[in-house]
C-alpha cells in the first residue's frame, strides 16, 4: 500500500507554516526598533536551516551506515529513512540562501571573519587573532568548501535514491545494486567523517571566531544523529498508527528506540568531554565559549543538557519503554526541542551574545521550518512505494526479532 | 510423594528443539528447562520462562556505585582534607562536581558489572567449584537437552510423554527416577 499524504497532515503542516510566518512577522515588527533585527533574523535562519538540514544528512548517514554494514533489519523501513533524507535538497537550498544573505548583507554580524575591517591590518577594529585564521576563514574559501560539501552530499544522495528505485523495478539487478550500495555507503561514510566535522567548524564554530575545539564537529554530529533517530521513530509510529507498514513489529521499534537512547548518551558524553576539559584547564581562550553561555543562558544551556541527557536516560532505560509508542513519542518530541535549543544557543550565543532571547521570531521560525520539514518528508514518502522490493535482506527484515 | 520421572531429551540442532518445544507446549506439555551451550533466540517465551530481573539488579548495583563514589569523594576531597588542585574551589562539593563525574561513572560501571556477574553466577548456581547441574556434559559443547518432569505434566502418562518426545526429532532420550 502506497502512502498518501492525508488531508489532516496537509492541514496541520500548512497551519504550522502559516502560524510560523505570522509569528515571524510579529517578531520582525517587535524587533524593528532595535538595531539587531537583521542579525536576529539571519541568526535564526542559520540555526533553523542548519538544524533541519543536519537531520536530513544524518538520516542519509544512517542509511549509508546500514548499507556499509550490510544490515538486514532496516530494509522494511528503508523508505522511511529515505523520506527523511528527502529534505536534503531543500535544506541545502535554505543553507545556501542563508549564506548568500550573509555574504551580501551584514554577514559580519554572524561571521565576524566576513568583515574586512576585522581581518585586514589597519582596519577600524582589526583583530590579530581573527586575522591569523584568515587563510582558512575567508569568504571565497568558505564558499568553495560549502559548495563542495553540499554538492557531494547531493550527488551521493541522488545515487542512493536512484539505485533504491532501480532495485524495485529490476529483480535481476538487485544483488549487483546491493553491492554497489555497499561500496557507495562506505565511500559516503569516509566523506561524511571528514565533512561532518569541517562543516560544523565552518558553519557553526566559526561564529565564535576566537574559540576552537576539535571535538565540536562530533558534538554537533551526535546531536543531529539523535534528532534524526527521533524523527525516524516518530514518523514510523505515525505511519503505523495510520495502518501503513503493518509488518513493523516491536523489534523494529525497539531497535530504533535503542538508537535514540544510545545516541543521546553519545551526545551527552561528547558534550561533557568538551566541557569538562575546558573547565579543568581553565585557559581563557578556551573558556570564552562557555563563559558566554553560562553567564547569559545558564538556565537554557544546562536545562537543555538535562533534557537531552536525563530524559532519555531515565525514561528510555527499560526494555518496555523502548517498545511503548506513547513514551517514545513523548521523549522524542522533548529531546527534539532540546536539540533545537542546543543548535540555537550555538548560533545565537556566539553571534548575538547576551541580547538574544526566545521570542516570537524564534518560535515562529522554528514552527515554520518544522512545518516545511514535515511536509517535504511526507511528500517524499508518497512519491515511491512504501516498502522497497527485491532487496536481498527484505525477508530478514520482515522476520526481525530481538 | 511418589517417585518422579524426569525426561532428558537430547537434540543436535537448536531449531529442531525449538520446533519440538513449540509442538509440545501446544499439546499442553510443560517444559521444565532447556540446557544449551548458547542462548537460543526466542525460546524463552515458548517454554514460558519468566523474564530475567538481572537488569533491575544492574540498575540498583549501578546506583550503589554512584552513591558510594559521590559520598567517598565528598569525604576525601572536600570534607576531610580539601584538596587544592589547580586552584579549583575546594571547599564546595557542587562546584567541584564536574571533576568527580568520570570517577563516579567508573565506579557505577564497576559496581554494576561485577555485582551483576556475581549475581548471575549465584542465581545459576555456577560459582566456580560448585557441582555441575546440567544433565549431560555434551550440552556444553554441541548438544541441546530439554527437560520434562512427570510431576509437571500429571495429565499425561509416562508412556504418552515419551511418545510425544520421540516425534520431535530427538537423538537420545534419558529417563531418571528421582524421589
TrEMBL record, chain A:
<keyword id="KW-0812">Transmembrane</keyword>
<feature type="transmembrane region" description="Helical">
    <location>
        <begin position="358"/>
        <end position="379"/>
    </location>
</feature>
<feature type="transmembrane region" description="Helical">
    <location>
        <begin position="216"/>
        <end position="239"/>
    </location>
</feature>
<feature type="transmembrane region" description="Helical">
    <location>
        <begin position="80"/>
        <end position="104"/>
    </location>
</feature>
<feature type="transmembrane region" description="Helical">
    <location>
        <begin position="12"/>
        <end position="30"/>
    </location>
</feature>
<feature type="transmembrane region" description="Helical">
    <location>
        <begin position="186"/>
        <end position="204"/>
    </location>
</feature>
<feature type="transmembrane region" description="Helical">
    <location>
        <begin position="299"/>
        <end position="318"/>
    </location>
</feature>
<keyword id="KW-1133">Transmembrane helix</keyword>
<feature type="transmembrane region" description="Helical">
    <location>
        <begin position="325"/>
        <end position="346"/>
    </location>
</feature>
<feature type="transmembrane region" description="Helical">
    <location>
        <begin position="259"/>
        <end position="279"/>
    </location>
</feature>
<feature type="transmembrane region" description="Helical">
    <location>
        <begin position="50"/>
        <end position="68"/>
    </location>
</feature>
<protein>
    <submittedName>
        <fullName>Quinol:cytochrome C oxidoreductase</fullName>
    </submittedName>
</protein>
<keyword id="KW-0472">Membrane</keyword>
<feature type="transmembrane region" description="Helical">
    <location>
        <begin position="140"/>
        <end position="157"/>
    </location>
</feature>
TrEMBL record, chain B:
<dbReference type="Pfam" id="PF11821">
    <property type="entry name" value="ActD"/>
</dbReference>
<keyword id="KW-1133">Transmembrane helix</keyword>
<dbReference type="InterPro" id="IPR021776">
    <property type="entry name" value="ActD"/>
</dbReference>
<keyword id="KW-0472">Membrane</keyword>
<keyword id="KW-0812">Transmembrane</keyword>
<feature type="transmembrane region" description="Helical">
    <location>
        <begin position="54"/>
        <end position="77"/>
    </location>
</feature>
<feature type="transmembrane region" description="Helical">
    <location>
        <begin position="97"/>
        <end position="123"/>
    </location>
</feature>
<protein>
    <submittedName>
        <fullName>DUF3341 domain-containing protein</fullName>
    </submittedName>
</protein>
